[in-house]
Amino acid sequence: MRSPLWLAICWGLVHSIGLTSIFGADDLRIPRLIEQLGAPEYTTRERSQSELADLGLEAFEALFEAQHSKDLEIATRARYLIRGMNVRWYQDSDPVEVKRLLRGYGDATVDERKGLIDKLLSMDEPGVLPVLCRLVRYESDLVLSKYAAVRLLEQELPVAAADRRERAATIRTSTIAGKRASTEWLRCYALSLEDAEAALPKWETLISQELETRNTQPEQSKQSSSRICRDLLRFQVSQLAIFERQAEIDRAIERVISLAGDSRDEVADLVGWLVSQQAWEKILGLQAKHAEFFAEHPPLLYRLAQAQRELQQDELARKSAAAALELHPEAFDEHLVTAEMLKDSGLFDWAQKEFELVCNTAPVGSGYDIRARFLLSEMLHDQAQDLAASTTLKAVIDLIEKDNQAAEWAAKLRGEVGAVYARMHYFAALHYLEQGEIAKHQSELEKAIAKEPTDADVLIALYRLPSQSVERAANTKKLIDQATEGFREEIHEWRTNLDRAGNQNEEEVYGRLLSTAYNQYAWLVGNTTGDYQEALQYSLRSLELRPGEAGHLDTLGRCYYSVGDLKNAIKSQQEACRIDPHAGQLRRQLEFFQKELAKQESASEPARP
What we know:
Distance between the termini: 71 Å
Structural class: mainly alpha
Largest sheet: none
Helix content: over 70%
Radius of gyration: 29 Å
């Protein structure tokens, strides 16, 4: 039996290709039935309402528009029909997980439906796209429909032209004859996937229409509508940037700025986006307009300093960064968050000062002190400053050995105190390797593994020891086998717990733990010895649970390298670097893969005579 949704799609196809005359005037009954909702005769109104109810989704969009009819009777009955419409949001052909999520969609609150849309957007399955298009087309809350559409626009574009064409075709089929603005956006997006430049004028028209809607329809939520307009404009900027249309980009950026509210959070969000667009002058303009926000908010002051540095206003940048560092000296949480923001932005010199401020001013051995030293050591290691990283952790070790509270904090933050010792020795080992002092390198690794026998990075370094004895190699192989078996046990435990999870919170916790266990196994085996194909599959599973995790993509790149697939190794590593562009280890791994591919291709070239 064909579903009402199938009928709605077919009827939309009839309209879109102009075949209504073939089917006769009677097939135009939906507009006539809606008109009869306001008929003088009660029986006519009731009969029309009953017929429209039977049509279900086939009449949905026309009824949605009729809610705003000037005829109060038509508008009232249309709203009643929309509210009472029993929509089956999933189809039998939808992926199993999608059907599970959508079973309660119709009874969920707006916030719960938004959460379900976000979950669907995070799923990497081919069958999800038509489902999202269905929600865009038939979601009764217009702002939520627009939200889903905008989030779809923000998804990463397929690289291959064939994949983009397939995505475009799916969108067109799923939104055919849809009349609301959000479906128009998706159809324009489908055009962008195939010919981004041809879609630019259409985007300008659609965005201008949405801005007009925001300005002339006060019954809509201003805040949500402003955000929708903002996100559409940001998407437009990304499309214009492809073709370097700077004048149009500047105009769109000004429109984004004009939509920003006067709260500090909105200004901070806007400044963050302007940084991504390298619109440094615009940041200076915002600081002049909202000086009070910048003066009291360290992240904003650092963004100002970044803009000043980029514009070669070095002395002003130094003063702004110094002022940010001095703000709220005892707000240690704030300084740690700011330091991580700076690190993720590649502003390592300022990040180091923020970490060191906490190390030097927080109570000795406190959670703030220990956490700051851990984070600082990892940042220094990522920047190949391994001696400084080891020294930073040596201060933690000294505290642990004389302060029980420090030991408790270290164990809480790292799982076991032994892991802190192992990390300190590992960083020292890397320093000695760089200096060519192999004996000291091996000595530090042996100290590390004695403290934490399952540390994957230490095991990898031991496996790669140059000129090692047969006994040393055999012992390392034994430790690797024991560690991988431990990771297997964790995988089984967390997978079992995930299957038995009773609520969303448990699913998220066990999903994260399972993803980490998969990644740990894949990272160790992919860099040493074992079943490389299994490691690759485990790495892929880790990313199914935590898509877009840069560290897990780094592992995937290594697993592809281990099975001899250098092109996919580079592709995965490039994606990791795109997500975390300032990570030194990710960049170095990518450079290694690229050099290996160049050597491989050079070796395969026929010799010249």
